[in-house]
Amino acid sequence: MKYQERIIDHYKRVWSNQSNPYFWDKGPIEKLPHDFRILEFPPTSNRQMWTYATCSMSQPEDKSPIELHIFSSVQDTSLVELLTTVVYYHRNTNSLDLNHTVNFGRPWQGESFCEYGFISLPYLDGPDLENLCLSDQGKQIKFYWLIPVTELEVKYKSKFGIAALEKKFDEGLNYIDPLRQSLV
After folding, report:
1. pLDDT tens-digit profile of 83-100?
2. Whether the predicted model's global pTM rises above the 0.90 cut
3. Nearest alpha-carbon partner for 147 in 42, 71, 53
């Protein structure tokens, strides 16, 4: 089975859902992996939100392969562009990993105050989603959650640490509300 197919099968198995593939064809796409796509997963009876996930953000030769996903309360193909730019940054500027933050360069959705993303463990899905072991290649792909955050939350993380920010999230993060206020 091809690398990309293994990623798609992993998402499908964990989320029990079929996806629609998207490819953002604007900008310097030649600098992205040839098989890179964004997968859109519609809501189901068990999951009442849209999910957009990278597919082949990582490549077989990567030392620390990761894939990212983001949630939305509505179908929003602008998230295809947003994730594509995050992948472009990861592949061509600075490698991203768990607990990193990335500047989206624009609001997450509409007039959102969230203009950054925080790369977190996939708390809603746990280790079933987080880890895809490729025993034939002797490596593991990590699947992380890209949580939209505000600039104030990024500054709070820098000052007080990741655990402090996640504690604030535990107090009431509405991770699918683009108009949510900063929690700090």
Report:
1. 999 999 999 999 999 999
2. yes
3. 71
